[in-house]
Amino acid sequence: MNEGIALFNETLTEAVSKNKRFLARRTSYIPSFARIGINIGKSGKIRETLAESENLVVPPVLIISVTNDCNLACAGCYACSQHRDKSAEMSAAQIERVVDEAATLGVCVVMIAGGEPFLKPDILKLPKKHPELLFVMFTNGLLLTGDTAAAVRKLKNLVPVLSLEGGRQLTDARRGEGVYDAVTAVMRSLDESGQLFGVSVTLTSVNYDEIVRSDYLKRMQDAGCRAAFLIEYVPCGAEDLSLCLTDEQKAHLRATEKDLYHRHDMLIVSLPGNEDPYGGCLASGRGFLHIGSNGSLEACPFAPYSDTNVKDMPLKQALKSRLIQEVRHNHGKLKESRGGCALKENAEWVKSLQSRSS
Ligand code: SF4
Fold it and tell me: Which of 65, 70, 138 most suits a substitution to test ligand 1, by most atoms within 8 Å of the C-beta?
């Protein structure tokens, strides 16, 4: 197995099943995470066997954008900027079929994104049906109340991750008036109910200092977050390049990532983070793959180009995508770029692969 991929699998196991700090204040989740940890081991062997016997690369992590519908209209929303055809969206049954297949192929973590995932009917059926898999759901948090919150609390393999942009001023500026207070009120009720949850923040040149150079993460930890996802901003187009992290901020983040992790007792995940130890970009199946809301199998959420669609074929067949293989075989070329995604920076090249495959 490729060294970089092997190291990523180790990091994943470490982060999920061995991270006592992560579960320290949520002990009711320990049995479920023990089960998830065992499955991470098993699924690693399945992936290794498929790689050796069928030359098939299956990622440990599958990101699925289940809908483009959303109850917010944030400025510069990445999902909205893709203008995906609503009528082509996968049904709940199609998504369920894909997750069933992914579980048998060795995927062990499913990240659910959108749009707003809680707007997708039957979305909670997935973690209920697959207690062996870890589900991380990226949500704006506004629907995580009442019966939905009660249903989520029963699913010990599901971790909702609520989006903020920083404090009240930055969050409301992008997400709308009153959103910060609404989301932090949801966080308080999740914390009181003993729910395992996290926060995700898109790191931009504007909010970097507030998030990384202040006690912001400590305050999120005190609010009950057991994980923080720091996602480096990826520009939708030329018009918002100024929001990309500056070279100084990128260098500071690389230099302080480990310290941030050790200074907090919650899990801190920096995306894409320093991919060098893994031999470069983890997209295209090396660490993860993305399925768009229309079923297209893509190397990364930030490179919406594809030559296979899981609505038309089994996931195993889609994984043999020539475009994905080509990107993977050239991952060494995909070095750090302006903005958080090397593939985005090489979008024209990826696009050319799509036209060559079709
Ligand atoms: S909540 Fe997410 S998907 Fe919805 S508009 Fe905001 S950024 Fe876009």
Answer: 70
